[in-house]
Specification:
Layout (H helix, E strand, L loop, with lengths): L2 H17 L3 H4 L5 H27 L12 H15 L1 E2 L5 E2 L1 H12 L4 H11 L4 H7 L4 H16 L2 H13 L1 H12 L2 H6 L1 H30 L3 H28 L5
Antiparallel strand pairs: 1-2
Helix pairs in contact: 1-13, 3-4, 3-5, 3-8, 3-9, 3-13, 4-12, 5-12, 6-7, 7-8, 8-13, 9-12, 9-13, 10-12
Length: 257
């Protein structure tokens, strides 16, 4: 068994369990989606910091410019950033996936106050942890983002790439497909921007980006057995953090998990 095969075997059970989390079935309730979005928007936001941390390490984002690392990994992460940071909305206008999500929240009448306070705190120069705590957002969402920023701060680039590929990017299409299937046709019409966001992630992250992320992870971890093992551990912890986030959504909807 190759190191990459062993890695996939080590994370398979947690990833499979998460893809079947009971929270997906709760989204058919008309009031459930705004509550879900008020939690999940934290993950949409901190995802971009994870992506940008990879770009910082794998490319040159300082002056004067100089070539850094492998041209292949530079291409892979830059293409992913391009799509995440400047995609198109349903009207073909340029927008980041995070801004598209905020637009979907407004349409769904979900409360964006807390995540806006996070951005305001950062804009005022507050540290990430303080901005999160002062936001007044759901405790489960704040805890999830705390975990993401610990990974960003503490883990080497190859491990972060694995978390991106399998704790986030590879997981997204499976989760979102379940969500769409649980929505009635009436809800899909009422939440057209959210539906577009979900379908866009299935289209982009379920195919092209997931392949790029896996290729990048394999190149960065190479033949280092210790790093592959570390990556499996941290990806497992990231999947557990996502499970706790979904648990907190279910609890907010009045369902014990």
């Amino acid at each position: 068994m190759t190191l990459s095969d062993q890695f996939l075997a080590n994370i398979e059970a947690k990833a499979s369990a998460l893809s079947q989390h009971p929270v997906y079935a709760l989204l058919s309730h008309p009031d459930a989606i705004p509550t879900f979005m008020e939690h999940h928007v934290y993950a949409v936001w901190d995802f971009m910091s994870l992506v940008k941390s990879l770009q910082q390490d794998l490319t040159c984002v300082q002056l004067p410019w100089r070539p850094v690392g492998s041209a292949n990994t530079r291409f892979l992460i830059n293409e992913i950033v391009l799509g995440e940071e400047s995609d198109v909305d349903e009207f073909d206008k340029r927008i980041s996936h995070f801004e598209l999500y905020l637009k979907a929240m407004d349409q769904a009448k979900a409360d964006t106050t807390a995540i806006t306070k996070v951005l305001d705190g950062l804009g005022a120069g507050l540290p990430v942890a303080e901005s999160l705590q002062l936001s007044g957002g759901p405790a489960g969402a704040v805890s999830f983002s705390d975990h993401t920023f610990r990974v960003i701060a503490d883990e080497p680039v190859g491990v972060r790439a694995a978390v991106f590929a399998f704790g986030r990017e590879d997981l997204i299409p499976k989760m979102f497909l379940s969500m769409i299937q649980s929505m009635s046709s009436e809800e899909q019409a009422r939440l057209s921007t959210f539906k577009y966001y979900l379908e866009r992630h299935i289209e982009v992250d379920g195919g092209h980006h997931s392949h790029l992320a896996w290729e990048m992870t394999q190149e960065l971890l190479g033949d280092d057995e210790t790093m592959w093992a570390r990556a499996a551990t941290i990806v497992g912890e990231s999947l557990e953090a996502r499970t706790k986030l979904w648990d907190s959504v279910a609890e907010a909807l009045g369902v014990g998990v």
